[in-house]
Amino acid sequence: MRALALLIILAFPTLGFTAESPDTGDTAWILTSTALVLLMLPGLALFYGGMVRGKNVLSTFMHTFAAMAIIGVQWIAFGYSLTFGGEGPFIGGLDNLFLAGITPESLTGTIPTYAFVMFQGMFAIIAAALISGAIAERMKFSTYCVFIFLWSTLVYNPVAHWVWGSGGWLLEDGALDFAGGTVVHLTSGVSALVLALVIGKRKGFPHERMIPHNLPFTLLGAGLLWFGWFGFNAGSALSAGGSAALAFTTTQSAAAAGALSWMIAEWIHAGKPSALGAASGVVAGLVVITPAAGFVTPGWALLMGLTAGPLCYGGVLLKHRLGYDDSLDAFGVHGIGGTWGAIATGIFATVGATSVLTGNFHQLWIQLKGVLAAGAYSVIVTLLLAYGLRAIMGLRVSEEDERRGLDQTIHSESGYTL
What pTM was computed for the model? Predict the structure, then answer.
């Protein structure tokens, strides 16, 4: 039998595997997950685009598609290297500029490193694109493009290294972030609020009604985000095993619970459940479960989703009470949801980690420390970028351009011709 096996391997060398061979099942799942996360970008464009006025729909779509182009190039050039290209407590290295040193044979765990690079690159893109929800309908497109390039380099890449990179100080400290609650949602949500405060309110806000022009777009976008989020969370297991299956299950559980609890909260508070509220509740549940997806059981995921709805609904109402203009609720959903998700991970984690539930109160302190550090760092750097770019390039379009709409004045196009 051994001789027969040897003859088969010699005749068909592709059947002979070594310890250095990638796992084909894991690789297939990560490639699929990468495509799923990329699909979230058009989903985000639809989600945000439906919520603005018709005269700004294309400019809002362009915020997301510009991020796909700009951060897509930045990630290959040096973003990946700064995040994963070396060891250190605060930032990676320059060893992998333009992906130098990586070949088709290079492995990260059981998957080709190229697959890992692309999967992580989608996270960098969507983190930058999320910020656009706070400044929709009034920011200069040229300044926005420069801002997301600098923000990804100076905020996203360092914080991602802290949490996920070799030697990152939060990783070494034991911080838990399965798929990016702190890295993606907290940083982008907090930065979005800072940018909204610096750029100022839209003309007429809050006295003029600025109702969504196409809620079916928003609902379709929420559905695509929900679908793509299975790759976002379950793909973060970096394998096609039980951890991915758990993250898939908790993602579905929290999203459904978030939609339900937001509808109930809005029904009680406003008297009627809205379609926009249901869509926002889905995203709130998805955001909250992201850092915990592979660390909690489905029952606790349901609880996290149930708390996400009213918590993020209250966060959205803050802008009316405090008077700031977070156009599409980037901070209310992603900033608050990401913060609570990171903290809740320290309370409810029981799978492959310990938490308050298992008597490890120190984990909660580690999570709080990570939230405070990432949040404070994001605020400081975003403030410096916002004020610097305001002085050099200007942040806002002119009052006349804002009145006419950014589709015409920035892109010389119109979303609707009928």
Answer: 0.94
Q: How many residues does the chain have?
A: 418
Residue 13: DSSP 8-state? G
How distant is the alpha carbon of residue 38 from its chain centre?
11
Mean pLDDT of 354-365: 98
Residues 6+ apart with CB under 8 A from 180: 123, 127, 232, 236, 290, 291
Q: Is the alpha carbon torsion for 51, 52, 54, 58 positive or negative?
A: negative
Instruction: Provide the pLDDT confidence category of residue 7 given band limits of 50, 70 and 90.
Output: very low
User: Which class does domain 23-411 fall in?
Assistant: mainly alpha
Q: Which residues, at least 6 apart from 265, have a Cβ–Cβ distance to it below 8 Å?
A: 309, 310, 313, 314
Tens digits of residue pLDDT in 209-250: 899 999 999 999 999 999 999 999 999 999 999 999 999 999
Separation of alpha carbons 254 and 339, rounded Å = 16
Of 122, 73, 310, the residue nearest 225 (C-alpha): 122
Are the CB atoms for 357 and 303 separated by under 8 Å? no
259 pLDDT higher than 50:
yes
- Nearest C-alpha neighbor of 235 from the set 20, 27, 83, 21: 27
pLDDT tens sequence across 94-139: 999 999 999 999 999 999 999 999 999 999 999 999 999 999 999 9
